[in-house]
Structure formats: structure tokens, C-alpha cells
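Hello,

Following up on my earlier ticket. Below are the four sequence lines again, exactly as submitted.
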Amino acid sequence: MSDLLERLRGRGWRLTAQRRVVAEVLDGDHVHYTADEVHALATERLPEISRATVYNTLGELVSLGEVIEVSTDGRAKRYDPNAHHAHQHLVCASCGTIRDVHPSGDPLADLPAEERFGFAVSTVQVTYRGLCPACASA
Amino acid sequence: MSDLLERLRGRGWRLTAQRRVVAEVLDGDHVHYTADEVHALATERLPEISRATVYNTLGELVSLGEVIEVSTDGRAKRYDPNAHHAHQHLVCASCGTIRDVHPSGDPLADLPAEERFGFAVSTVQVTYRGLCPACASA
DNA sequence: TTCTTGACTTAGACGACGTCCAAACCCCTC
DNA sequence: GAGGGGTTTGGACGTCGTCTAAGTCAAGAA
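Thanks for your patience. The regenerated structure is below:
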């Protein structure tokens, strides 16, 4: 994660305690937290950090390409720190758990030119849905 | 669309003016309306229909499999009446326009068993993002 | 046809999630 | 170590969606 902080400083980021804490929270396991969960975890380390700052920082990390925004259901967006390795998501339709998966094939190549309607297509997001083992047996 | 109404009646739906109007709105072109847009269009035909009823009816149509719920951004969900033909979506990152597309290949087959983590995977949603011609030239 | 009943609808309050703003703050440079 | 502009704060606000209690009505029974 010091890597991340280095990269950010190199891009002209002013390094504040708040930003460091948010980055550290995301650096943990490859879990996909909501903004509120990030805020809760950040508060444990820096009690007075505000919700607005967490949203601002997450938005900046997304636009810098360090974090990916995932909205799997219509609910809260989740933030995926695993932005530097191409991957897709497997979501439990019941409990909402998200796992990173690595399908074979390149979905971008599967969209022929005549199906692009003149769009400049840049990214593809593939979301697999189903029941996780725990929910399937419940 | 009378097809749809027939199917719904066959499933025990009580046929009310409100439900008929919502179904008629969705039956139009293959546009992807938000719930509020559906409500606005329904209001033109049945002035006193309430927001809650539109949400209820859309939810029922989704759980009956007659309509697909699409949440492309974190904003309002959109409702896709083209539920009986497999297709994916192409979204403009700038203006939010959605088009139905038909990529080749089967993304479900691209997820090997060892990448399923015991999930019972049932559906795949593929979303292509890019700029539509109008936004690209702006 | 009329009756009856329980499913359906309604309006508005409420809740979750996210954004915006002006004032205070503080990191960084010189 | 002083100044300036980027950053943070917290609370109001906005959007999207859900819930509830009371009234209404579609559809089967007689």
C-alpha cells in the first residue's frame, strides 16, 4: 500500500491523515466494502473523519483508476481495490457476497463492430449471479 | 402485449386498470425507462395512478420474469421489457443511453468450475461501457 | 344481478444512499 | 514560520425506493 501512497503523491495528491486512513482500509483483504463500511473502519483509526471526506476520497481513487466502483444491486456501491488485475465478479443473489473471478475469454472481442452502434467501447463488466453455498443450503 | 396480459391473468393476477397501464407503457418501444419515467407515462393515461403502485407492479413483473431490472450506474434502476430474448447492454458513460446488444459467445461457459467457489451460478450480465457517437463528438 | 371479500391502490411519511456548500483547517512551498 | 490554496467538516438537501394504514375495487358466489 505504501506503493499506492507513493503513486498518489506522485500525482500531486496532498497527503492527509484522512486520505491515508481511507487508503489503508481499502488495502486490507480483497473485500468489497460500501462507502459506509469504509467510513466505519476509517473511524476506528481516525475518530473524527467525516462521511463527506470518505466519499470524496473514494471518488478520487476511482477517477485515478486505483479503485473500481461496483454497483451489483441497486443498493449501495461497493469499492474494489483490486483495480490492477482484470477480473469480474460473482455475486450471491441472496446475501450479496461478492467474489472476484477470472473467466476465460475476452468479452470485448465478442462484441462485433456492427453491434457497437458507433460507440467507442472502452470497458466491459461481467457479473455472474447465483447462490453461494451457504445460501443454497439454507 | 395482450399476450402479456393473458400470461399474467393465467398466473392469478387480478387485472386492474393500473396494472394494465403499466404493462402498456412497457410494451412500447424497447426503451429502458426508469420507474419515474414509467410513472410519468402511466399518468398520461391514468392521471391518478400512484408512485407506490408503479413500483409494486414493476417489482411483480420482474419477479414473474416478464421484465428485467437493469442498474447500470448507481442511479435509478431501469426496466427492460425485452426479457424473452437473451441480450446484453451497451451504456454511454456520459449520457446514460442504453442499447441492447447481442455479443457472440457464452460468458457462462467462460467461467470454469474452479472459479465458481461452489456457487450455483444462474445468470450472467454483461455491460459494455463507452461513449455514444453524440457524446464522443461533443 | 348483487353481494362479499380479500387483494389492490393510495398518499405521504420514512429510510438509505449520496451530494453540496460555506466556513474552518492544515499540508506544502518558499 | 508565514501564506495560500487544496482539504475537511457537518449538516442541509436531493434522489430513489419502501412501508403503512385506510379506503377501494375486481372477480367469484349465490
